[in-house]
Amino acid sequence: MNILIVDDIHEVLLQKLGRAAIAYSYQPDFSRADAEKAIVDYDGLIIRSKFQVDKEFIDLNPNLKMIGRAGAGMDNIDEAYANSKGIKLIPANEGNRDAVGEHMIGMLLSLMNNLNRGDREVRSGEWKREENRGHELKGKTVALIGYGHNGQAMAKKLSGFDVKVIAYDKYKTGFSDLYATEVSMEEVVRRADVLSFHIPLTRETRGMVDDEYLFHFRKPIFFLMGARGGIVKIPAVLKKLDEGKIIAAAFDVLPVEKFPALAEEAWYEDLIKRDNVLLSPHVAGWTFESYYKLSEVLADKVIAYEYQ
């Protein structure tokens, strides 16, 4: 193969491809327009999140054989169309699973113990103990939606907290293990104290978490969204926060990301004014370590594909 790399990646990927005698051109400053002009000369593409690899882009090169993504999920790639053209799609989901698990547990502990609010109040001269009484994670039931690489990593990291971890995955069966018990969605809505999402963004999951979805939960829950923002309808979460059905919510991802577009959303001002909402800028899977591991995992998979 001869691979066009259009996004910033760790040099370990370049080193591994070089040692495997796989030709590449590393162009991290390429725009989509640049890539459109160049892609015809390559049969492989590696990208992170710079632009959408849609039907129009794919059709620019009928000889494209492989698209690799140095990240988890393939939601910026038209998977269905790529598959119909026989293009091999290679994600690197394993590379940031530990980072995501640690980050989301950190957000959960912060929410349960009012850490951000307490810090802010002390800094402003307020000493409120009773108002910041927290919840213990021990003894809670944590429900994971999706039990792929990220879900499994989250379950393993929760194992030291003396919680019960249950998991629902529409596309898997028989996956109960040492860290989680497979359950139906009916059991999730009945038993969950904490709800955490670990599924990709697809046509089926876009907007899945709405009023109807959240209505069925029997107990007040802590809500964690570290998968893809397009899965959740924010007004539905705000409504359940008002009703007390959601105790607190953490978002590393949102349906709209980056400014100024985010600030223009109708729900944005309501979201950010709440003490029981914690936000981070889509960095759960973006640690110094995952930056290396994503590229390493992708390189190994690309090499395996080339020499299969």
TrEMBL record:
Protein name: D-3-phosphoglycerate dehydrogenase
Gene3D superfamilies in alphabetical order: NAD(P)-binding Rossmann-like Domain
Molecular function, one GO term: phosphoglycerate dehydrogenase activity
Top-level taxon in the UniProt lineage: Bacteria
D-isomer specific 2-hydroxyacid dehydrogenase NAD-binding domain: residues covered: 105-284
UniProt KW keywords: NAD, Oxidoreductase
Pfam families: 2-Hacid_dh (PF00389), 2-Hacid_dh_C (PF02826)
EC code(s) of this entry: 1.1.1.95
Domain D-isomer specific 2-hydroxyacid dehydrogenase catalytic: from-to ranges: 3-303
Lineage: Bacteria, Pseudomonadati, Bacteroidota, Sphingobacteriia, Sphingobacteriales
Family in the record: Belongs to the D-isomer specific 2-hydroxyacid dehydrogenase family.
Enzyme class: oxidoreductase
